[in-house]
Known about the structure:
With 142 residues, the chain is mainly beta. It has a single domain, classed as Immunoglobulin-like. It is 0% helix and 50% strand. It has a five-stranded mixed sheet, with no helix packed on it. The radius of gyration is 17 Å and the shape is globular. The protein starts with a strand and ends in a 12-residue tail after the last strand.
Amino acid sequence: MLTMFNVLPCFMFVFCLIFVKSGLSYKNYPPECLAVDDTVGQAKDQQFNAILECMVFELDLSTVDVIWYKENRRTLEKEKIKENYKFALKHKEELYTLTIKNVQGNDYGDYYCTVKNKYGKNQVLITLFETMECQGTDCPNY
């Protein structure tokens, strides 16, 4: 017999993850993640920021590590992103955000939101691409 014990909010997603309890023991799985937008556009060289968002689905978020990576275009290796003058990392409940400040041409490319716990890991790809005008809610009104 399967009993539903926790349903995470769906927001605007096509599906929700439903965690189930089987008998007296819990099933243990790697956390799941989903990009709010799998592509994000922003104009370069104009002091605009790009915001990448990842939803993490796990019953106990304190047991999850969320790590952002950028794929190096030349080597195709994933480079871990740390908070600094260029990147801001935030999270509120299950929403994890990477802000890329003052987007430049070398910022375009593939970013990965990686989530892991003791049972395994998952990741989602988000691509940052160039646009001609500012994108997002923080754009100036001309």
